[in-house]
């Protein structure tokens, strides 16, 4: 007769239980690159699913540090009416600050 081993609970969850918490959106779109995934997730986080392609282009062409800084700013703004508009404003502000810093350091 096989012995049953009783495992102690260590406060850790089973990996299958963790994976069940996440839903996969299978909308028929193919995401093959990391920047596509980042842009898609950014668009969903900003509640701007209509402009996914724009955020994918941003993820491909704009420095990730700027995108993350603008994303963090929007995330901290709890009473934002339009998250995507606030994101665009902050991104523009960060880009102009960086350009000023680069132009002053090159002189």
What does this protein look like?
The radius of gyration is 21 Å and the shape is elongated. The longest helix is centred in the C-terminal third of the chain and has 24 residues, at 83-106. Helix 2 (34-45) packs across helix 3 and helix 4 packs across helix 5 (83-106). It has five helices and no strands. The chain has one domain (29-106). It is 61% helix and 0% strand. The mean pLDDT is 87. By secondary structure, it is mostly helical.
Provide keyphrases for this structure.
107 residues, mainly alpha, 5 helices
SSE map:
Elements: H1 15-20, H2 34-45, H3 52-61, H4 64-76, H5 83-106
Helix pairs in contact: 2-3, 4-5
Number of helices: 5
Residue share in β-strands: under 5%
What is the molecular shape? elongated
Distance between the termini: 83 Å
Helix content: 55-70%
Q: Supply Rg.
A: 21 Å
The tally of structural domains comes to 1
Largest sheet: none
Number of strands: 0
Helix/strand structural class: mainly alpha
The average pLDDT is 87
Order of helices and strands: HHHHH
Low-pLDDT segments, ≥5 res: none
């Amino acid at each position: 007769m096989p012995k049953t081993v009783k495992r102690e609970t260590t406060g850790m969850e089973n990996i299958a239980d963790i994976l069940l918490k996440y839903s996969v959106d299978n909308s028929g779109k193919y995401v093959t690159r990391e920047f596509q995934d980042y842009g898609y997730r950014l668009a969903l986080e900003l509640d701007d699913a209509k402009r996914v392609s724009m955020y994918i282009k941003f993820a491909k062409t704009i420095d990730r540090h700027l995108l993350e800084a603008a994303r963090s700013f929007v995330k901290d703004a709890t009473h934002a009416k339009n998250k995507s508009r606030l994101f665009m404003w902050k991104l523009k502000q960060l880009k102009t600050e960086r350009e000023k810093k680069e132009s002053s350091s090159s002189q």
